[in-house]
Amino acid sequence: MFAIEEINQNINLLPNLTLGFDIYDSCVSESRVIQETMMLLWEKQNPLDEPREGWNVPLLAGIVGDSMSTLSIPMARILGLCNYPQISFGAFDTALSDRQQFPSFLRTVPNEKIQDKAISRLLTHLGWTWVGILTRDDDLGEIAGQHLKEDIMQNGGCVAFLEKIHFHYTLEKVKKIIDVIVNSTVIAIVVYCEEMHLKRLLEIMSAQGIWGKVWIYSLSFTFSPGMFSGNSSKILNGSIGLVLHSENMPGFSNFLQTLHPSKYSKDIFIKQFWKTAFDCEWPTNNSMSTPQLLQTSKKMFCSGEEKLSEVVTSLFELGDLSYTFQAYLAVYAFAYALHDLFQCTNQEPFSEFGKCIKENKDTIKPWQVYWYLRNVHFKTQSEDEVFFNDLGEVPAMFDIMNLQIFPDNSYRLAKVGSYDSRAVLGQQILLDIAAIVWNQKYKQMPQSVCSESCQLGYRKVSIQGQPVCCFQCVPCSIGEISNETAVCLKCPEDQWPNEKQDACLLKVIQYLSYEETMGIALAAASVTFSLITLSIICIFRKYSETPVVKANNRNISYVTLVALNVCFIASLMFIGYPLLITCLLRQTIFGTTFSVVVSCMLAKTITVIVAFKAIKPSSFGKHFDARISSCVIYFCPLIQITICTAWLGIAPPFPELNMRAKADTILVECNEGSHLFFYCMLGYMGVLASVSFVVAFLSRKLPDSFNEGQYITFSMFVFLSVWLCFIPAYMSAEGKNIVIVEVFAILASSAGLLGCLFLPKCYIILLRPEMNTKQYVRGKHACN
Most buried in the list 79, 284, 559, 782, measured by CB within 10 Å? Predict the structure, then answer.
């Protein structure tokens, strides 16, 4: 009524044309709906007027209603046969979107699938993955409940229970539903039915003191204070849910306040409304019965002077005008469609007639009204666009409301958010959680989940026989982290989880560096021994003509000392960040120089043996002394050089970032390329050292001025002992400890050779010069 009066007063909309209306009450009855639809279409309003081609007189532009799907469906089937346009302002059934079954049906509300998406995304936005559903016990209710359940599960949620409920249920059936609710751990329950079905359930829950559930109500649920008792309604405190989007309608409150029987004398409802609003009775023509009626009912006469403004807010429940606004939009959609129709905005529907409708309004057809209605496009006062999509629906917009009930039983529906299906995914829900007043049991937003979210560093493990929302939390495996998704992910190869396993950190880069204590100590030892070796070379060079130096074969001694010095210096290549050049050279130089050193030991031993045999008159050893020594020194290292050359040519060593050896560390090391060549190099050196040791051991008792055979034997024993200990230590070490073991073995064996062979000679040269004479040497031989 308000919308039609507003349109009739608008000079820019339908000028020179007046809208009228008939109102019929469906009484929530399918048979009544069918009867009244037939009356609207074909019953004559005036016996003197004749209908024009099926149209009532005056023209019936279309029908607004009904607000329920079960009643709109039979209406739409009848009206579709005649192509009469129908706009519902509350029917949500998805079947009504079928253009073939209901060709002339439109609605200003979305279908239930859109509502299901809105509810499931609201639950996801709140983080509630464990919910229950109460749906009305009829075919449409059961189907709608299943659709909602599927949508919730598609969004990652779980439904703990789906129970049917109806206001016809017995007390026992209602108590069974309450048992399901009480025994479930869900906090959030979706109410997918009308409010009357929930009445008895809430009353029993209130009597039993069952609180703490958060109710999520759908569009079909309307909170009416008169429907529930004071205590049972308080169970709904803190509920949130969807209502159809509504806007302010200027002048509507004033319109309600000015309602009066005298203003609408033909309205059959106004006097009954007045009686209910002010609890009075209208005087009747029967003067005898009226006093008796008043005496028994203790009511006053209705004078018509009562002030409706005092009861408007409480009587009309102006806090929720969602359905009112949808009916308001439906009337305006008809008005704009008729306006376009009579203004000939588009002549496409009339092309077969060849003329515009305004030239001959008597030729209007219902399908032509529907065509303009299908293409109507206008804006509300808040600049929201209104149009019908391909399904004959206005794009969904919902207001998210919070029901706040106060101790004095007064209540308020506060808007706390909105849902706009036209927005991009992820921005459809706008919600001010801080503005929500929750159930009195909770001081902050409750959580409705089957299992608490896993902490960072943990992952979900499903519980057999339980929904996916019910799970256990177990720590992530070594080398993995988990974020908010509770899914364990491996860190990149160069990273490692932190202590909480919620973030990846760069792995520690490890190698034997010059900055650490062990690296400094080994480097210092290497340099020290190298300086000592150089000092011995200088001593031998200075005293090269003395008997001690001559008796030890000066040339072999010089080669040995130089090779040992190279060994000491080469050990520095094992320290520091491995480079390609150091990886290529360090093992090969170490193996080759040690082969030279051991070959010199063997040559010295052979020299001692040959020198002893040369004393005999018949011996030819003295002719082969120098040649044999030279052959040993040249030939034995040549085999090692061949092995190392083949190694460098076939599978050379290279620097490598080893991320597998230690989970939290990147080992910067030299990959030997081929372990076969590496062990061949060590094996040959071991064989050469063993031969030298055996020969030296056998010659240890041969007469010699300075016990050279014994010194060689002892030095080779030290050498072999070091490297025999090296092998198990090398095999069991890891990371930079491998390098430490090898450097220590190189330094220890080299230092052992240096000490055993040359320190006794230096002692004689520097501290016992009386022993460094020919007389001493000859005298000693004479004694022998």
Answer: 79
CA 698 – CA 701 distance, rounded (Å): 8
How many other CB atoms sit within 10 Å of the CB of residue 87? 28
Number of domains in the chain: 5
Q: Which tens digits make up the pLDDT trace of 92-138?
A: 888 999 999 999 999 999 988 898 999 999 999 999 999 999 998 98
The span from the CA of 76 to the CA of 55, in Å, is: 17
Same domain, 470 and 367: no
Longest CA–CA span in the chain (Å) reads 175
* Spatial CA neighbour of 473 closest among 449, 497, 494, 496: 449
Helix, strand or coil, per DSSP, at residue 85: coil
Residue 291 CB neighbours (<10 A):
9
Length of the chain, please?
Answer: 784
Q: Mean pLDDT, to the nearest integer, of 442-465?
A: 88
H or E stretch covering 670: strand 665-671
- Over the stretch 262-283, which tens digit does the pLDDT of each residue have? 888 888 888 888 888 888 888 8
Which own/partner pairs from 407-415 qualify as long-range (CB within 8 Å, at least 24 positions apart)?
Answer: 409/225, 409/230, 409/233, 409/234, 411/223, 411/225, 411/233, 411/319, 412/319, 413/223, 413/243, 413/319, 413/320
Is 0.70 surpassed by the pTM of this model? no
Q: Are 480 and 489 in contact (CB under 8 A)?
A: yes
Angle, CA of 157, 161 and 165, to the nearest 5° = 130
Q: Give the Cα separation of 683 and 675 in Å (integer).
A: 12
Structural domain range at position 779: 517-783
Determine, yes or no, domain membership for 14.
yes
Can you name the residues that pair with 665 across neighbouring β-strands? Answer: 508
Domain of 167, CATH number, reads 3.40.50.2300
**Domain match, 231 and 138 both:** yes
The predicted pLDDT at position 770 comes to 80
Q: What are the backbone dihedrals phi and psi of residue 411, each rounded to the nearest 5 degrees, phi first?
A: -145, 165
Q: Let me know whether 575 and 671 are in one domain.
A: yes
Choose the final residue of a domain: 319, 338, 372: 319
* pLDDT-based confidence at residue 360 (cuts at 50, 70, 90): low
Task: At 297, give phi and psi (nearest 5°).
Answer: -90, -10
Please give, one letter per residue, the 3-state secondary structure of 140-199: HHHHHHHHHHHHHHHCCCEEEEEEEECCCCCHHHHHHHHHHHHHCCCCEEEEECCHHHHH
Residue 175, pLDDT score = 93
Residues 777 and 670 grouped into a single domain: yes
Q: Give the separation between CA 317 and CA 7, rounded to whole angstroms.
A: 24
In this structure, the answer to whether residues 267 and 402 fall within a common structural domain is: no
Q: What count of Cα atoms within 13 Å lies in the side-chain half-sphere of residue 328?
A: 21
Banded model confidence at residue 691, pLDDT cuts 50, 70, 90: confident
* 500 φ/ψ sector (left φ>0, alpha ψ -120 to 50, else beta): alpha
Is pLDDT of 577 > 60? yes
- Confidence band of 51 (pLDDT split at 50, 70, 90): very low
Stretch 598-624: mean pLDDT: 64
* Residues contacting 627, CB < 8 A, separation 6+: none
Nearest-angstrom CA–CA distance, 143 and 70: 13
**362/143: higher pLDDT:** 143
> Which amino acid would we find at residue 377?
H
Q: In terms of domains, do 15 and 153 share one?
A: no
Residues 428, 421: contact at Cβ < 8 Å?
Answer: yes
Q: What is the pLDDT of residue 626?
A: 56
Which residues lie across from 55 on neighbouring strands? Answer: 52
696: left (phi over 0), alpha (psi -120 to 50) or beta: alpha
